[in-house]
Amino acid sequence: MTHELTNGYSRTRPEDLAVLRKPIRLEAMTGNAKAGKQSQTQIWFDTKNFSEPQDHQGLILRLGRFHYTGVLLHPRNLEALLPAIPGGLKAAIRLESLGELEALLSAGTHQEILQRVQSPLIAVSSNQDLLARASEAGLSTCLYQYVDDGESLHRSIQQGFRHPFLMICFRDPTNIPLELVIASLQSTGTTLIKEIANPTDVDDAIVTLGVMEVGADGVMFSPVEHEQLEAFARRLAERGQERVALEPATVTKSEPIGMGFRSCIDLATLFEPTEGMIVGSTSQGGVLCCPEVFFLPYMETRPFRVNAGGVHSYVYNAANRTHYMSELNAGSAVMVVSSDGSTRQAPVGRMKTEMRPLRLIEARFASGETINVILQDDWHVRVFSPEAKPLNITELRPGDQILAHKAAPGRHVGIKIDENIKEN
Q1: Which of 97, 246, 274, 368 has a CA-to-CA distance to 343 between 20 and 30 Å?
Q2: CA triplet 63, 200, 228: central angle to 5 degrees?
Q3: Rounded to an integer, what distance in angstroms lies between the CA atom of residue 208 and that of residue 210?
Q4: Which among 120, 119, 143, 121 is positioned nearest to 131, based on CA atoms?
Q5: Contacts of 150 by beta carbon, 8 Å cutoff, 6+ apart
Q6: Cα(310)–Cα(262) distance, rounded to whole angstroms?
């Protein structure tokens, strides 16, 4: 299958006109399924403007609170920045020469990173021989390409689909070249990331993720001002493209289990009566827990709070990630979920952790998967019914139905991983 499209650059050099007026023929690539296209949107940050973690008022230290999934390091700042990289983020390194790669391997840094983040270091380079050597050494690989004409566009596709990641920086502002790459790589296992060259261009970063409806698999957007980082996070939250699948689950067990620590999540927002948060004890899924927006006879409502359960619990977040309850603190970004599956982001204002009696609730989906959640054993703690009505957990009985989220099991530091795992 081929696509014959005329290139539409909006800004060209005179000497390029003859080339750009020629139709560009692209072949839809297939194969490389073993690379495994990333299931979550990739948001990477380039540290080229950083030497120490405190540069730019410690901006790097905040990345874990937003939507970032990876950090691009450089040989000159690797030693200083690596210990400060927030947990759960992929680590990549930009390499220009085989000498840089061999020095990295000799020092064993790639093994240190593997132990730290539980995923291989990603070698990023435009040098194919370097990437081949990196792959032999057990590193993941990302081909970096600069596209400024039809020839470089073809080359990026023909070479890039052989790697787990392809990162492209486009010279011209038009999205047509990006569209061609998306169309060509959609049946491959290669994850496409567009570098946003202008660190203040939030619009470009957001638009890139929506090109041709599906968008690129990710962007590398690296602002050095906190205001730009926060604006980018807000725009991502406002996209509203993420929906969470919710379905009924039938209660199979509801019983007190004794004392333990539970946390309330107090957000700097107000919940709607059909909104809550997904909490569960395993990576197989969780229950949509109610906020304290409904009438209570002995206390005022707290429409900013979800009495969310045991401190060990997973709190399901955006971009197919989870956080342990104990990891959340003031300023953390969390996902608010409506009963229809729509989501929005909100910041944590306070975590309130106390010793309380606890109750175990187990439920089974129609397809057979079982989940459980441990909540404070009190009448005022509630979960949603499939009709989005509040159910007091102390009144739940086997056979009752609750609203829940089913997920594929397997997590490490909050990131979905493919492995055999059993949790109960």
Answers
A1: 368
A2: 45
A3: 5
A4: 143
A5: 7, 19, 20, 22, 24
A6: 4
pLDDT at 214: 58
> Residues 168, 192: contact at Cβ < 8 Å?
yes
Sign for the pseudo-dihedral over CA of 370, 362, 265, 355: negative
Block residue for tokens 């309330």: 264
End-to-end CA distance of the chain: 47
Average pLDDT over residues 203-220: 79
Helix or strand (DSSP H, E) at 195:
strand 191-195
Backbone torsion region of residue 116, taken as left when φ is above 0, otherwise alpha when ψ lies between -120 and 50, otherwise beta:
alpha
3-state secondary structure of 236: helix
**Surface-to-core class of residue 411, CB atoms within 10 Å of its CB (0-12 exposed, 13-18 middle, 19+ buried):** buried
Instruction: Report the amino acid identity of residue 72.
Output: L
What is the CB-side half-sphere exposure of residue 209 using CA atoms within 13 A? 23
Q: How far is CA 178 from CA 29, 183, 306, 394, in A?
A: 15, 9, 42, 54
Tokens of 111: 């093994």
Q: Is the pTM of this model over 0.70?
A: no
**pLDDT tens for each residue of 67-120:** 788 999 999 999 999 888 887 788 999 999 999 999 999 988 777 776 666 678
In contact, 336 and 346? CB cutoff 8 Å: yes
Instruction: Compute the distance between CA of residue 364 and CA of residue 370 in angstroms, rounded to an integer.
Output: 4
Does the pLDDT of residue 383 top 70, yes or no?
yes
Would you say 1 and 26 are in contact if contact means Cβ atoms under 8 Å apart?
no
- Continuous segment of H or E residues that includes residue 342: none
